[in-house]
Amino acid sequence: MADTLTLDGLIAVLPADTVVTDPDIIAGYRQDRALDPEAGLPMAVVRARSTADVVAAVRWCAANRVPIIPRGAGTGLSGGSGGVVGAITISTERMREIEIDPVMRVAVVQPGLLNAEVKSAVKQHGLWYPPDPSSFEICSIGGNAATNAGGLCCVKYGVTTDYVLGMQVVLADGRAIRLGGPRLKDSAGLSLTKLFVGSEGTLGIITELTLRLLPPQPPASTVVASFASVHHATEAVLAITDQIRPAMLEFMDAVAINAVEDHLKMGLDRTAGAMLVAQSDAPGAAAADEIAIITAAFEANEASEVFSTDDVAEGEAFTVARRMAIPAVEKLGSLLLEDVGVPLPSLPALVDGIAAIAQRRDVMISVIAHAGDGNTHPLIVFDPTDTEQAARADLAFGEVMDLAIGLGGTITGEHGVGRLKKAWLPDQVGEDVMDVSRRIKDALDPDHLLNPGTMF
Amino acid sequence: MADTLTLDGLIAVLPADTVVTDPDIIAGYRQDRALDPEAGLPMAVVRARSTADVVAAVRWCAANRVPIIPRGAGTGLSGGSGGVVGAITISTERMREIEIDPVMRVAVVQPGLLNAEVKSAVKQHGLWYPPDPSSFEICSIGGNAATNAGGLCCVKYGVTTDYVLGMQVVLADGRAIRLGGPRLKDSAGLSLTKLFVGSEGTLGIITELTLRLLPPQPPASTVVASFASVHHATEAVLAITDQIRPAMLEFMDAVAINAVEDHLKMGLDRTAGAMLVAQSDAPGAAAADEIAIITAAFEANEASEVFSTDDVAEGEAFTVARRMAIPAVEKLGSLLLEDVGVPLPSLPALVDGIAAIAQRRDVMISVIAHAGDGNTHPLIVFDPTDTEQAARADLAFGEVMDLAIGLGGTITGEHGVGRLKKAWLPDQVGEDVMDVSRRIKDALDPDHLLNPGTMF
């Protein structure tokens, strides 16, 4: 990038009111929810309204070798949409169209629509888009695809990639291409759609998604239980998943329970060591069978309070409690937010190991988890003004990932690698896999303009 | 490749009885089930027993710039595993190990095991591997992954890629790498596992797969009906899929019905224009609801005989009939086998359009279909000794793919592009997508040694 580069050329190729140069507004695009201290102020923000806007912006960046940060709603938890000095942030927040075809059971959506808005729009056609990150009310569907986001129902219904049938994506050179389409089966050519899902904006900018929809989820029955210890709770998880795949199986430890109770005052057991929230949406009599299996597994692991309900609203209250865990724990201090996952049988070892790290490093680590699929969110709570504690928190952050890798797990189940976890990626996947990944990156983005610092 | 190249070096790096040089045996590796007239006799066949064997063979080929044809059971229907003159065919037929972890619900399998053997082995642990190509008794799991194979239950349960959690794959330079693993959620790095599934051996040779397993399929109820015309049947398909996603929804036209009846003599209605076989495996009372919806849709479209049964064996007899359709029609002449798919609402237009092509080109085209997901197998029957008819069959083969592309569909829903369909791939996906695909191919296999002529 030449020192003399001005934004005049960029402004000239885009509609009025698209390129943001006001530093006060740009400051709002510096961070995503990961609050990466290394995040920088981008040179400008392009608030695209269309694929054509994204194409024009990327072409200008490519011609001038300006790095590009793709950004959806900015709710990323790995720092993958945070700003970079000298870069242009291309925000898709204004790209909010959706078309639903109830016969084909697909939605064609622009990336800026929020996950909750997609769910709500398809519900009006009697359909269901399953993936449900806890942040579903504030995260964008484009960001969901970029990170291959998960959620609570994924234990039974799979993750974002399982619902992406096609997309339009703008490549690093500004070409917009279409991949896949509204077809349930398609083996024609390389599976590029699946490659772009989860690529965190490093290979292209998704400007449209074709999503597979399901019939509405049957009404779910809910079982909630408190346990004396996290270990009892994780053993109960295995006792359930050995037999059935529930529609939801969520875990909160004592810190999370108390933080949530502080806010919601819904009568959660503040003395419990852990809490599990499980749901079955099996149709008809099968739900009762599953609820019986879940209840028996809870009781066999000394659950102190087991509450079950067929009332959907009552069950939803516990889901809301679980969804609130991250923001509630966030009130206790600054957070380093983990997303480690392990094969299910290693879940107790992971949770026990995290407790050992917390003790050794003398930091608070609250664990919440999508326990049914082995995906946990250890939340490392620290006081950023206490530099020694912050340094210990940083050490713990790495050690939790090392622990997961050692257990055959992953450093990220659903948030993506972003900038915060990229140092651990080679440890998980190995140098050969990094080499293959880099070759693909080099082939599709030879100047490494797309989301520099993320993943690679 | 030097003219003076001998196989001594290859034989030296592999265990005894691994490199096949006997021309009579090699002849058996010339064709796959596509019977591509262009297929050539490979220079030798490596019958690998382990990943190490594949690594050694690929390294030798890479050092000597010898093309490599990866091959599983040789049941491919697009010519992707047929022989190439001067190439080494690496067969995985002897790699037949399987390990099942019932707690994690995964199977770690070598690629040479047949799909039916995988199903049978996991069934002994009370588990289910859903994908079920019609050829499941003779096709290998490695070939299934290489082509992203589908089958009958895919309308409800998805295709091979939805069940591949990880793999070991040998790259073009002979490095063996591991991708993914036994984790239900993993967003760490590019989705390479998904990229290699369906890559038809053009990016690497899969030597091990980690497969996700499900609890056993609930017993299915079956409804079978005959229709006066194919159009009535395809309209019935839409009437069903507008409301529910059945566990199976298969279509046979009059030619297929009669060809199957010739063999099975099970009393199929030889006067019918088409037949549908549908199943519901919804638990409990939900099955009866689905069967009622299916039956009503059949009757609303003037089905002449509607037979339903809760008896699994009785239902399976009709599934067997449908699975037998390709081999039965094959007895009528040589086949050009299509695999075109369209978005569901276009299914009647596709089937009607195929009839028009058959009439215009004066060739017999029998249509069977996984109708519930819009994936059809038009079978073009011709007499290879009648060169004029064979030429018309060739024209029809291309026109059926053109038709599918024109309807927003795909040239291959589950068989892969192979060598026979690659000329149509750019028409479907466009030149920009071909360019992206070629860049990835070039990045991972710069000398284009892996499965030359397939897809690219």
Automatic annotation (TrEMBL), chains A, B:
Residues 38-216 form the FAD-binding PCMH-type domain. The keyword Iron does not apply. InterPro entries: FAD-bd_oxidored_4_C (IPR004113), FAD-bd_PCMH (IPR016166), FAD-bd_PCMH-like_sf (IPR036318), FAD-bd_PCMH_sub2 (IPR016169), FAD-linked_Oxase-like_C (IPR016164), FAD-linked_OxidoTrans_Type4 (IPR051914), Oxid_FAD_bind_N (IPR006094), Vanillyl_alc_oxidase_C-sub2 (IPR016171). Gene3D superfamilies: 3.30.465.10, 3.30.70.2740, Vanillyl-alcohol Oxidase, Chain A, domain 4 (1.10.45.10). The keyword Oxidoreductase applies. Its cofactor is FAD. Keywords: FAD, Flavoprotein, Oxidoreductase. It comes from the Bacteria. PANTHER family: GLYCOLATE OXIDASE SUBUNIT GLCD. This is Oxidoreductase. It comes from Williamsia phyllosphaerae.
